[in-house]
Amino acid sequence: MQEKSVFHINGYVGLVLAVLFVLGGGWLIWSGATDDHIVSVFLGALLIVIAAFGASSLTIVGPNQAKVLTFFGKYIGTIRDSGLFMTVPLTYKFAISLRVRNFNSAILKVNDLRGNPIEIAAVIVFKVVDTSTALFAVDDYEQFVEIQSESAVRHVASEYPYDTFDDAKKITLRSNPTEVSDRLTAELQERLNVAGVEIVETRLTHLAYATEIASAMLQRQQSSAILSARKVIVEGAVSITEETLKRLEKDTNMQISDDQKVQLMNNLMVTIISERGTQPMINTSNVK
């Protein structure tokens, strides 16, 4: 069921006409009763009935609000303009908000792609774009958004690892929040099209390892960070050592044997890489 517009005009005109009809009908009834003129009484009563009939068509629509109209159970259209309007009489009018709203999901415990238990939560920003679908396609569109949001968060969390220690280019929940949010938005939009709801934005608000493995995974992260730092230090030390040997041979015309190069490289590497204030013994007595 697609949303459609319904007939509506300026309500102030209808309000004035209804008041005039009531006043005119009252005067006719009074004058007819005074003069014992049954036709005037009948016309006066008819005017009052018409005024009441017209008053039932008046409705007020607030800013960023819509009124969905049904006529004896049949959907006939929606009023999206704000103000006082006169529309089809004897209709039931459902008010529905068009404002942007937030939904904060609960903290969910799920397994990531590698089976690690994690805790995750998200904020969902949404708005109604099809009023008839939101009201009549699902039982309660707000509750529908909440349930589908939590289901989508669980599914998306299971598609990615929390973190990766061997492939920096792989998308993870911790390192790529933008890509994960885009994936969550796309999946939620696909689920909520049936409810006439548009997803404006999604963002992860909580992400952590579950309590039972948090300590072990923290140690793993620390170990990975230490290994990465060591790798950078070793690469720098190798570069410095190579440059040192080249400059010694070039600037001092020293003739260094292969064994001496190995020993010198070993001493330089130990000196550079060591975290403590080591005092290596560098033997250069045989250098000519």
UniProtKB/TrEMBL annotation:
The chain crosses the membrane at residues 12-32, 38-61. Coiled coil: none annotated. It comes from the Bacteria. Pfam families: Band_7. Keywords: Membrane, Transmembrane, Transmembrane helix. The keyword Transmembrane applies. InterPro entries: Band_7, Band_7/SPFH_dom_sf. Residues 56-221 form the Band domain. PANTHER family: BAND 7 DOMAIN-CONTAINING PROTEIN, MEMBRANE PROTEIN-RELATED. This is Integral membrane protein [Lactobacillus plantarum JDM1]. It comes from Lactiplantibacillus mudanjiangensis.
